[in-house]
């Protein structure tokens, strides 16, 4: 029999305490965390009315997910309740209100995973599926494949009876303006384009633990403004933008997708927790530092097998919220401290 490399053997040894702690009493019977994107956003650029709109939208989505879990519902259904609401809300870069491609259309991506069986589903390049997250879940439930794209994915969605919408339904004036600004900035270096506020802000995601101890995660996005050539980011990629494993945690990411793909962020956090016994905050911070070191920015939401919810981001803001069976219930946009390098300001929230 081949000998295990030393480093792997020691990692396996370290997994024992993590497995033991997974059987310990949960910190929260149910727990949920949500996000609506991360980026560089200053308080000055946000009007009080706009801030109130975002806060209300996040609170409504958090409440919808928490209600499912409080009633003894499944983590999967809580994730779907949150993400479908945010997909319909034009404030966020998912479903209706998604950012536009170079050609002026939409190309939507989503992924979904459950932590008990590690079954997963994902879809990319959609232009007519009203709720990409429902398609991701349907692909998972069907079970033949994990990742579908483009026309084939839309055909599968139609076979499943999922609601269809015309491309125009997804497109909002705000996103049309952003695309125009983006195109102008490509042609003329004098024109500035606020990368974060207009380029991609607003991907949505949710992670949850239900009273049975099952975890689930889901992420949905329009990607980045002006994307071309069939570009796909991290959001629909299982292991990068989304992951759930009952032995460790559930994760949904948002940020510069190219870096989250390269760092394998979502699965990386779960693996760190499982193999090293790290808590969700420490593991999430470690991967976000890795992303930052490579040149990327963004953040993650994590719920551990014990029901602990954590955020980590290296941007000045992340639309986010969390609630649990112990009475935690909060939504937030900005961080109060300026980003630090290495970027771990979210840890200061604990
Ligand atoms: N991660 C998304 C993408 O790269 C964008 C975002 O989360 O802001 O497509």
UniProtKB/TrEMBL annotation:
<keyword id="KW-0378">Hydrolase</keyword>
<dbReference type="Pfam" id="PF01112">
    <property type="entry name" value="Asparaginase_2"/>
</dbReference>
<protein>
    <recommendedName>
        <fullName>Isoaspartyl peptidase</fullName>
    </recommendedName>
</protein>
<keyword id="KW-0732">Signal</keyword>
<feature type="signal peptide">
    <location>
        <begin position="1"/>
        <end position="24"/>
    </location>
</feature>
<dbReference type="InterPro" id="IPR029055">
    <property type="entry name" value="Ntn_hydrolases_N"/>
</dbReference>
<feature type="active site" description="Nucleophile">
    <location>
        <position position="203"/>
    </location>
</feature>
<keyword id="KW-0645">Protease</keyword>
<feature type="binding site">
    <location>
        <begin position="231"/>
        <end position="234"/>
    </location>
    <ligand>
        <name>substrate</name>
    </ligand>
</feature>
<keyword id="KW-0068">Autocatalytic cleavage</keyword>
<feature type="binding site">
    <location>
        <begin position="254"/>
        <end position="257"/>
    </location>
    <ligand>
        <name>substrate</name>
    </ligand>
</feature>
<feature type="site" description="Cleavage; by autolysis">
    <location>
        <begin position="202"/>
        <end position="203"/>
    </location>
</feature>
<dbReference type="GO" id="GO:0006508">
    <property type="term" value="P:proteolysis"/>
</dbReference>
<dbReference type="InterPro" id="IPR000246">
    <property type="entry name" value="Peptidase_T2"/>
</dbReference>
<dbReference type="GO" id="GO:0016811">
    <property type="term" value="F:hydrolase activity, acting on carbon-nitrogen (but not peptide) bonds, in linear amides"/>
</dbReference>
<dbReference type="GO" id="GO:0008233">
    <property type="term" value="F:peptidase activity"/>
</dbReference>
């Amino acid at each position: 029999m081949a000998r295990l490399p030393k480093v792997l053997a020691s990692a396996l040894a370290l997994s024992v305490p993590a497995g033991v702690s997974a059987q310990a009493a949960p910190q929260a019977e149910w727990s949920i965390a949500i996000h609506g994107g991360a980026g560089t956003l200053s308080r000055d650029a946000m009007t009080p009315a706009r801030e109130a709109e975002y806060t209300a939208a996040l609170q409504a989505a958090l409440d919808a997910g928490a209600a499912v879990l409080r009633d003894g519902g499944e983590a999967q259904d809580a994730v779907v309740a949150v993400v479908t609401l945010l997909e319909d809300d034009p404030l966020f870069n998912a479903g209706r209100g998604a950012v536009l491609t170079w050609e002026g259309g939409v190309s939507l991506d989503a992924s979904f995973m459950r932590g008990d069986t590690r079954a997963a589903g994902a879809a990319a390049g959609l232009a007519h599926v009203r709720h990409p997250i429902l398609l991701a879940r349907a692909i998972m439930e069907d079970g033949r494949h994990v990742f579908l794209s483009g026309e084939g994915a839309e055909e599968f969605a139609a076979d499943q009876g999922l609601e269809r919408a015309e491309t125009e339904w997804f497109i909002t004036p705000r996103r049309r303006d952003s695309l125009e600004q983006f195109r102008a900035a490509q042609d003329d270096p004098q024109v500035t384009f606020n990368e974060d506020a207009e380029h991609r802000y607003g991907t949505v995601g949710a992670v949850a633990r239900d009273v049975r101890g099952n975890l689930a995660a889901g992420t949905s996005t329009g990607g980045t403004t002006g994307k071309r050539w069939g570009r796909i980011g991290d959001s629909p990629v299982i292991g990068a933008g989304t992951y759930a494993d009952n032995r460790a945690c559930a994760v949904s990411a948002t940020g510069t997708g190219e870096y989250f793909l390269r760092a394998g962020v979502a699965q990386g956090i779960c693996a760190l927790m499982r193999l090293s016994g790290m808590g969700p905050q420490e593991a999430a911070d470690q991967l976000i530092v890795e992303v930052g070191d490579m040149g990327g920015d963004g953040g993650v939401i994590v719920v551990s097998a014990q029901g602990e919810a954590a955020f980590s981001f290296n941007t000045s803001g992340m639309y986010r919220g969390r609630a649990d069976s112990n009475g935690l219930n909060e939504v937030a946009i900005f961080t109060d401290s300026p980003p630090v390098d290495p970027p771990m300001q979210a840890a200061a929230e604990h």
